[in-house]
């Protein structure tokens, strides 16, 4: 992954997550200075204190930063969607983004990149959607509207909102959870298998963020491969990459029982296309699921 950017100072929230950790490693390898926003007392010189609940950010160490990248938020698949956890999903995004947006309005970096998700679109069925499409009306679509609305409070700074799809990497996320089952030949389609999964490799996700740091793009950007696949196609490709059968489908009722409300994200269909990225000339290293999974399994 090659960056054209001259060395910059970049502040990042969500540094301990799958995407944040990989992004920080890449940016540092390219010669950038990274400041990590943490919620405890800073221990190392690169750490800066913030408190999303209180809405506070220690601004002084961040003055002069070239970019702020906000990735923090409670994981939507980490727990059952109880009323309490749904509130945490929303508040972790709304309060955190409000705090960071307030700081960005004070700091005035060249660019503010804020996480969102393809959940913005809600259920799309077989209909392909781009950044120009309206928001859906389910729980995560509501969360994304609030989330992006908080980012939109930034004025006078180029602001990009990342509508991220299913991020693929063997070390975590959905693929990390699926691999053990498929390695033992216990994997299979989820539900009908006809639902569309819009995905992107972690490698291309990091490359896309770096592209957005140096581009003139503003507004929402779909971080998904240009070639979404059905769940059946995905699970078949994963089984082939592992040289294992995929003979054990998970019925929809079992997923609903096991996962509760989050099962709607596994069984739901989102066919999301990265129109803004492709029109800006971004080229995916892994545009197709077979090549992507083969490369990831070989790592």
Protein architecture, described:
The chain is an alpha/beta fold and 299 residues long. The chain has one domain: Rossmann fold, CATH 3.40.50. Helix content is 38%, strand content 18%. It has helices at residues 18-29, 83-107, 139-151, 173-183, 202-214, 231-242, 252-259, 263-267, 275-279, 289-298; strands at 9-13, 33-38, 47-51, 56-57, 67-70, 111-117, 128-129, 158-164, 166-168, 196-197, 199-201, 219-223, 229-230, 271-272. The two termini are 16 Å apart.
Secondary-structure map:
Elements: E1 9-13, H1 18-29, E2 33-38, E3 47-51, E4 56-57, E5 67-70, H2 83-107, E6 111-117, E7 128-129, H3 139-151, E8 158-164, E9 166-168, H4 173-183, E10 196-197, E11 199-201, H5 202-214, E12 219-223, E13 229-230, H6 231-242, H7 252-259, H8 263-267, E14 271-272, H9 275-279, H10 289-298
Parallel strand pairs: 1-2, 1-5, 2-3, 5-6, 6-8, 7-14, 8-12, 9-11
Antiparallel strand pairs: 3-4, 10-13
Helix pairs in contact: 1-5, 2-3, 6-10
For the CA atoms, what is the radius of gyration?
19 Å
In CATH, the homologous superfamily goes by the name NAD(P)-binding Rossmann-like Domain
How would a crystallographer describe the biggest sheet?
8 strands, mixed
Unreliable spans: none
The tally of helices reads 10
For the record, the CATH architecture stands as: 3-Layer(aba) Sandwich
Shape, per Cα inertia axes = globular
- Mean pLDDT comes to 92
Portion in strands: 15-25%
Strand adjacency order, main sheet: 4-3-2-1-5-6-8-12
Oligomer category: single chain
Write down how many β-strands occur, each being a DSSP E stretch of 2 or more residues.
14
CATH fold type: Rossmann fold
The proportion of residues forming helix, as a percent range, comes to 25-40%
The helix-strand sequence is EHEEEEHEEHEEHEEHEEHHHEHH
Question: How many domain units?
Answer: 1
Q: What is the terminal separation in angstroms?
A: 16 Å
Top CATH class: Alpha Beta
Structure classification: alpha/beta
